[in-house]
Amino acid sequence: MDMSRAMVGVDVGGTFTDVVAVRDGVIETRKVPTDLLDTTNSVLSGARELGVGDANVFNHASTAGLNALLTRRIPKVGLLCTAGHRDILDIGQNWRPADAVTDPRWRRSFGDAMAPLVPRYLRRGIRERLAADGSVVAKLDEEQARKQIRVLGRCEVEGVAICLLNAYVSGEHELRLAALVREELGDEIPIAVSSVVSPLAREYQRTSTTVIDAIMGITYGEYSKRLDAGLRELGFEGQWNYADCAAMLAPVEVAMARPSRVIFSGPAAGTSACAHFGALIEDQDLLCVDVGGTSTDVSVVVGGKPIVNNTVELEHDMLVSTLSNEITSVGAGGGSIVWVGDTGEIQVGPKSAGADPGPACYDRGGTEPTMTDACLLVGILDEDRFLGGEGRLNRELALAAFERLETPLDLSERVFNAFNIGLNNIAEGIVDIVIRNGIDPREFSLVAYGAAGPMLLPSLIRLIGAKRAIVPPHPGLFSALGLLSADMVFMESRSRYLALVPDSASEIAEIYAGLQREVEAQVDADSGAVFRRSFDARMAGQAYETPFIDAPNGEIDEAAIGEMVTTFHDVYEQRSGNRFPEVPLQAVTFRVQATVPTAKATFVELDPRGTGELSPSREVEVEHLKGAPYQCKEYQRGELCRGDSLEGPAIVREALSTTFVPPGQTLGVGRYGEMLIRQEES
Q: Which residue did the predictor score with more confidence, 336 or 160?
């Protein structure tokens, strides 16, 4: 790759769109309010400001599809399924979340009684049946299928999802059904076929994934066309790629073949950025916390690698079968709205003011108080130098918003409670993922990024017991930087229930050979691709498998099967703390991926301070937090040098973020300008 040309990364969030360009090792950044009606406008605005005409790479993470699903602003699609199974979307996995177990009014959010992805009248049963081994039990009734397809045509569907029973073993009926759809509805109609999109076991997950893929094909298809045209008008002539849910890059044409894979890419990019930066500073165990305007995304890097799952859950039971960084999202961020509960208590989130109208202090029509308003009243934010001086915050509007809350608490109590409850909401999300993965937070560093992360997270070091907090360079756009730290990845997978015993070696070898051919067809021979095999398996009697276990790349023989069994037990013990080598294993899904190395964003090393001492630019008053107001020294991040240290309370300002160091903490500056914040021993 030509390193003399620029690389551009864009991460579209619910409140801001982050744009990063790297030219000759120099990182340039922009933060643009997200246009929720058409995020293309925000992306092109940021790209225009930074310039993309000289770039050879444009990497993109988008929440356009995710937001469309969550708000149900989705196109009308139909589902063709095996007769008698049209209600599989309503049934889901047939379990409730913990907080709904005793609630008789609870309904699945995307079920037909609520806000369905596909209304029942658009789910049409097709007479056919395959057995679990792929043999034909009942032939595809083509005449009946045509009648059902014509019903969808009369209903003017914009796309069609096809998911038949056991099609992950054989896609024969599905592919023929897709041909009938084109004959009846025209060649231009988007079609998602489960045996192509997600040839994986588990009927409900495959149906959910295929339906979402059909919706995303329409949503991202038009979006990609508009964005591509806009980039070309700006002079961009290079390759542009989407990041997927594990922050692995794929060319736009490959990504759009299975658009469901890119639905949750922004938070995943932040995790990859943490792993990349952690390797640079030799810290490989990280709690990655991205605090944005709308939500907080929490993930974990262990031993330098993100924890990867084989599914993404968008809402309860709304699943997409794709590799993804394990991320927990909490409805708490800078734009989280402060409100009063039924008993008069202060609550924060999950509702957010977003970018429009935004917090009250933005002076864009918002009237409800938010965490950002609280931080302004506390004194952490500077009303005159918001977004690097490009914006101004209105303290009087923030004050008025808090005064409108219907509570007997005085102003200081309102702001204090709002600030601390917001922090505790974030801490809860962090603790949840810590417990779920069985890790000791005392051995992990807390990476604080996102526009609001450095402002809020250092206050949580003692609460969650983290080793320290790390504020990386450009924290407000760190996820976008992760897009310039990722590799191109091409992947194919297939499910087959096989015992992991020597007798299965030949069949497993055949599966891997077929997957290898499919991946090789997508990769240039001289690309330097590194191939990796993996598999998902489970012990006899288990309902769910352990995903993403490495498999040997050579010949699959008796010795290779033994290696796969040993590796499974090693990984299972690492993840669960238990080992059961006497229990037989069953493989469920096999996977081959090719990784093509790409140029990475680099961070410039800071020089140590020569002469003189670090001195604050001024002092500001912090109030409403605890006890009497106190003075807080303010520093400019651009003036910090490697090896500098300072004591809290302190505020460090930079163009697109603010770091708050509470009393009792110290801050040191590392090799690349990262700020390392530690809690003093009490």
A: 160
